[in-house]
Each structure stands twice: as C-alpha cells, then as structure tokens.
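Feature request, filed as a ticket because there's no other form

It would be nice if the structure record came with a short human-readable summary line next to the tokens. Right now we just get the raw output. Example of a typical job, pasted below so the devs can see what we mean:
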Amino acid sequence: STRTRLAEILQARGELDAAAEQLATANVLRPDLITGLLMQARLSFDRGDWNGALQQLDAIDERTSTRPEQRDGWLRAYIEMLRVLGRLRAAEPLIDEWINLRQSIDPLASQPTHYVSYAGLKFQLYGEAGARAWLAKAPLVPEAHLQAYYASTGDAALALEMRNVKSLRAARDALMAAYAAMGQLGAERAISHWDAYAKFFDQEAKLSVSQAQAVVNEFARLVRSGMQTESNLVLVKYLAIENALDQQDGDAARTWLTEL
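Raw output as currently delivered:
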C-alpha cells in the first residue's frame, strides 16, 4: 500500500515515530497484508523492542506457512533479528527452512549463494572447518565459471570473519577472474567493499586516521553514485571507528559515530 511504502522510506531515514504512525494506519486499513506486519515487526526491533518484534513475527507464523513469498519475508526477518541478538543456534532451523524454500523456487545456478549468505554465522558457531563443511553442502552448478564465482565468494565470507587480509585479497582476485570469464568487466566496483575492508585489516600497513578518512570518503562517493550500498558504508565506518580507537583518537571515533 501507499502508506506501507511511505513508512519504509521514513524508517530508512531514521524517522521511526513517523514510520510507526503510517504503519499503524496501514495495518488497520489492510490487516490482510503481511508486508505491513513484517515492517511493523522490523520497526519494533529497530526501536529496541526486541521481544515485542519476535512476538509480532510469532503471531503471523501460521499465516505465512502456505505462501512461499510471504514465508520468505518472514524467515529472513526472523533470522536477521536472531542474528543481531546473537541467538545463532535458534536461527539455524529457520535458515534450513529458508534454504529449502529457496531451492524449490530458484534456479540451480543461483542456489549456492544462499549458503554463502550464512557462512559467517556458521563460522561464528563452528569455526572455519564447520563453515567450510556448510559451504560444501551447496549444490554444484555445471558452469565452471559460476562454480569458481561461488567458491571465491565463500572464501571471502570466511576471510572477512577471520579478518585475514591475505585470504581476502586472494578471494578478490579469484572473483575478478570469475567475473572476467563471465564477460562482466568493471565488476570490481561491486566488490569494492572487500578492498576497503582489506585496508583496515592489514596490520602491516596500518592506516592513519587521515588515511581511514580517505577510505570512508571514497566509499561514500561510490554509495552516492549507486555503485555501493549504505549498509556496506556503515561497516566501513565501524572499521574506521575501531581504527581511530586503536590509535587513541577519540575525537575521530566520535565524529564517525555521529554519522552512523
């Protein structure tokens, strides 16, 4: 509905009270729309009512069980909330259900990406060996260049968790080769966040605060031009904050905190 779309825009802008007003009206007018109810749960979560958000999702569990599109949104919302709360084991059966759902919908060529999406969570629970065992469960695709693509993205996901700059850069190079094999030139912009992370992870070439600022500024430019995402920019800023704190520059850390 129009009100639901408006609430989504307001929530993205951080105007949570205004978004809540629009959603409340939308859900009264169209209580049959699961989209509005899912947004209401996410909004409650963003406002700090974590238990309330999970209860709202529980309330529409059965209503989504027979509608794949609605179930997909419900599962992704519940998994993300549990992940943020650190309840990783509770998220595991929902991840399994989500992957089974997507495998019944998506073509084989795109299915391995679902396993890559949760490789980091598996790493947190079971370490590198457990995460690699998880990635190995992904179905094989017949196209060699696609298989190389998924292998490199899986390696990158684990390198990010381990903050291993050497492995991350190797995965980046492998992915660029896969992109080239697919004829996708200029794809390095899509993984420019890997390059930014690697600069912060590199302990042998520690960034100064001014160098970190340059990395953040360049990444913000990519976001403005539509080549990167706001969520990745937030992660880059968090790394800049850590870098500033490591160098005992509280002023720089506070500046970036105010921008989050």
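Something like this underneath would help us a lot:
The radius of gyration is 20 Å.
The chain is about 75% helix and 0% strand.
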